[in-house]
Structures are given as C-alpha cells and as structure tokens.
C-alpha cells in the first residue's frame, strides 16, 4: 500500500488544478482507505475551480468517484477490503433528529461539510508537510483517499468503475430528483432543462418512472439527441425563442403545462423557465446549483392561483446505503444506461483540459481513470 500518491490539487480558487504527489494517511477508527479507480467531473467541481463557490484550499478535488477498499480502521468490517465502493458526499450520522426520522439527506453532521477527517486532521500532506483538505471529505481525484466508513457504500464488483463513480453524484442527484423528490407519476408530463450528467440522469429517471411526455431543453444538439435515445419524447433547442417553443409544445397537453419541471442547468433564467412551464398543481424542482448568490424570479400571482410549487432537491433525497446499490442493480438490469453519459476517459494529468471542455459546455461526463496496480 503506497502512502505516496498522485492527486489533483487546487491551491487557490480560480487558479489551475495541478497534479501533485502527496502523502495519504492510514485509516483511523471508523474510516476506510480507498484506492480510487474512477472519478467523474461534475459542474460543481468547475464552480470550485473557477472560484464561483468559496471553499477551503488547498484541497484535493472531486466528489464523484468509486474505488476499491484497501484497508480499514478499527471498528470497521474487514470484509470490506477488496470490494468495490461508491463514495457518497452525504454521510448520515445515524443519530441526529433528521437521521432518526429517516431523512438522512437532511443530516447536518456529515463530515462532508468540514473537508477534514472526523478528528479534525487532514487526510493528505504535501511535500513540505502542509495539510491538504479533501473536497467534501472525499477527494475522489486522487489515487487513494481516506473517508468515513458510511461514505464508502459497497456495490457489486462487476459494475464498471466509471458507472460506479457517476452513481455517486449525478445519477443519484438526477434520478433521485425525479423518483424521490418529485415522485413522478406514470403517464405524467415532464420538462427537463439542462442535459449534463445531472439532467440526463433526470431523463433516465423519468423514463424509469414511465412519464408520458418527456420534453428536454439544452443548447447543444448532440445532448438533445442523446436525451431522445434515453427516452425523451420532444427536444427543444435553448435559444431566443425557447420560451415560445416550450409554451406551444405544452399547450398541446390537456393540462396546458407540465406536471413536473426539472432545472438541471444551474442558471437563474432556466429556474424561471422551469417555474413558468408548469400546469396548475405542477411541481418545479430546482436540481442544478448556480454560482453562489444567484437569484431568480417567477410570476407570483400565477404560482398561487394555480397551486404550483417550487422545491429544491440536493443530491436527489439520496439515502446512499439504500439508493446506491439500487441504482447499481437497475444499471445491471439494463434499465439505467449510465455508461451512455460517459464521453471521455482521461488521466489525472489532463484535468485542466477537462475543465476547459466542461466550461465550454461541449463535454458530457468526463471520467478520470486511475492506473491499476
Ligand atoms: N438553457 C438550457 N440548457 C442550458 C443552458 C440554458 N440557458 N445553459 C446551460 N445549459 C446546459 C448545458 O449545455 C449543459 O448541457 O446545461 C447543461 C449543464 O450540464 P453540465 O455543465 O455538464 O453540469 P452537470 O454536472 O450536469 O450539473 C448540472 O447541477 O449539481 C449541479 O452544480 C451542478 O449546476 C450544476 C448542475
Ligand atoms: Zn456533483
Ligand atoms: Zn444525522
């Protein structure tokens, strides 16, 4: 087991991420050490890289990933060693009021908030002995990491590591928003705005839920095409007349609007578009995270008059221990084609190029693949 590993480090918000050799600690009680196999690049990582979200630095990047348990600390089941795990950035404590009420997604005791280990120390040190934070207490863009036991959720070993990584963020966020937050009913009409990993996962979730009409909106035609292959029924290019096109399409429905709308682009103007797309009694779910401080507006009279609702959904109301294995099983059964979301596998050293593509909006899900041993 190597204590010297390579990792993608952000030294300063807004500056390039560099690959550094770091020393990773051994797992303490209640922790596991994971040899990473794959890490997905999520738009949230770009916000951090570009400084749109304030986060502690220096930090090892990444919050979407999978790997193999290398060793465990005291009190952790040694049978986990050698098995594949998906990492979760929400780690329910199991004892707070939210956890006791079976709402683990609302737990505020998760170590993910600290970017440190439970004892307050850092998982990594650099060549000069300086401590380095772990993004969301996960640090998936590394060859090895230390996480809380509950952050490492076992799934079957035969699931592709790239697919496993995506289950850890975009799949749970998107599928969960549709199936858990909104509980989309069969036959209903759904609008999904923004078709990155999160939005396309909403599409897969809506198809699983057997929604009747699934209307998708994006700026990129190749993403609209992929969404249609994944089960969307109508594609609307985002542009100057997106409002009118969407309205005309929804006017065909008996309800003259969508039963559900999902905002997965992380922008204020598309949050407004989602709210305005609703039929009376419809539900708009804000899934995408915008830069900090973004504000959106909506027609208040229309919202109240039609009993419309707007809710937020962070991480798709995920209970990692229950939902990750369930998504893995749906994937194995061919009902959640997560592999279709991956358009590039890259080395850690190519991380800045991957951020450039994400910024340009042309990339789908890019997955950093770690060298095997
Ligand atoms: N209208 C429609 N689609 C848009 C618009 C717009 N005005 N602006 C951007 N998009 C599309 C982009 O073309 C892209 O396909 O939104 C999609 C966003 O995808 P990604 O950048 O790949 O983001 P993703 O990782 O899926 O995350 C989406 O959820 O977790 C949050 O922080 C994350 O805000 C981000 C959002
Ligand atoms: Zn993410
Ligand atoms: Zn809790």
How would you concisely characterize the structure shown here?
This protein has 373 residues and is an alpha/beta fold.
Q: What can you see in these coordinates?
A:
This protein is α/β, with parallel strands linked by helices. 27% of the residues lie in helices and 26% in strands. It has ten helices and 18 strands. The strands form three sheets. Strands 3, 5, 6, 9, 10, 17 and 18 form a seven-stranded mixed sheet that branches. The protein has a six-stranded parallel sheet with strand order 13-12-11-14-15-16, with helices on both faces. A hairpin with a 7-residue loop joins strand 1 and strand 2. Helix 3 (161-181) packs across helix 4. The longest helix has 21 residues, at 161-181. The chain is globular, with a radius of gyration of 20 Å. Adenosine-5-diphosphoribose binds next to helix 1, helix 3, helix 4, strand 12 and helix 7. Residues 42-44, 170, 173, 193-199, 217-220, 223, 238, 264-267, 269-270, 288-289, 358, 361 line the site of adenosine-5-diphosphoribose (APR).
Question: Topology of this protein?
Answer:
Elements: E1 4-10, E2 18-24, E3 31-40, H1 43-50, E4 59-60, E5 65-72, E6 84-87, H2 97-100, E7 124-125, E8 131-134, E9 144-148, E10 152-154, H3 161-181, E11 189-193, H4 197-208, E12 213-218, H5 221-229, E13 234-237, H6 242-251, E14 258-263, H7 268-276, E15 278-286, H8 300-305, E16 309-312, H9 320-332, E17 342-346, H10 351-360, E18 365-369
Parallel strand pairs: 4-8, 11-12, 11-14, 12-13, 14-15, 15-16, 17-18
Antiparallel strand pairs: 1-2, 1-4, 2-7, 3-5, 3-9, 3-18, 5-6, 6-10, 7-8
The structure holds adenosine-5-diphosphoribose and zinc ion (ZN) (2 copies).
The site of adenosine-5-diphosphoribose has 28 residues, from helix 1, helix 3, helix 4, strand 12 and helix 7.
């Amino acid at each position: 087991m190597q204590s010297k590993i390579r990792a993608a480090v952000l030294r300063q918000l807004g500056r390039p991420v560099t690959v550094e050799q770091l020393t990773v600690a051994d797992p303490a009680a209640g922790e596991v050490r994971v040899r990473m196999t794959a890490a997905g690049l999520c738009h949230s990582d770009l916000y951090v890289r570009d400084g749109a979200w304030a986060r502690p630095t220096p930090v090892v990047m990444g919050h979407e990933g999978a790997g193999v348990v290398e060793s465990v600390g005291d009190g952790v089941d040694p049978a986990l060693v050698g098995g594949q795990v998906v990492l979760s950035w929400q780690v329910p404590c199991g004892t707070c009021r939210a956890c006791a009420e079976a709402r683990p997604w609302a737990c505020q005791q998760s170590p993910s908030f600290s970017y440190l280990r439970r004892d307050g120390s850092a998982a990594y040190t650099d060549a000069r002995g300086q401590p380095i934070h772990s993004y969301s207490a996960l640090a998936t863009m590394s060859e090895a990491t230390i996480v809380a036991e509950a952050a490492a959720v076992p799934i079957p070993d035969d699931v592709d590591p790239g697919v496993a990584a995506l289950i850890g963020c975009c799949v749970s966020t998107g599928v969960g928003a549709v199936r858990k937050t909104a509980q989309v009913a069969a036959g209903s009409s759904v609008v999904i705005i923004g078709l990155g990993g999160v939005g396309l996962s909403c599409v897969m979730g809506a198809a699983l839920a057997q929604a009747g009409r699934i209307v998708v909106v994006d700026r990129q035609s190749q993403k609209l095409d992929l969404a249609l292959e994944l089960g969307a029924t109508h594609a609307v290019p985002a542009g100057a007349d997106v409002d009118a096109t969407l309205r005309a399409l929804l006017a065909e429905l008996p309800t003259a609007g969508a039963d559900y709308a999902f905002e997965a682009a992380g922008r204020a103007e598309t949050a407004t578009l989602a709210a305005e797309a609703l039929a009376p009694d419809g539900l708009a779910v804000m899934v995408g995270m915008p830069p900090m401080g973004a504000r959106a507006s909506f027609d208040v009279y229309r919202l109240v008059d039609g009993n419309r609702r707007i809710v937020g959904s962070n991480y798709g109301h995920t209970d990692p221990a229950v939902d990750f294995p369930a998504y893995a099983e749906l994937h194995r059964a061919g009902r959640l084609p997560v592999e279709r979301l991956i358009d590039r596998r890259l080395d850690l050293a190519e991380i800045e190029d991957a951020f450039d593509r994400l910024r340009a909006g042309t990339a789908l899900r890019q997955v950093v693949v770690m060298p095997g041993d």
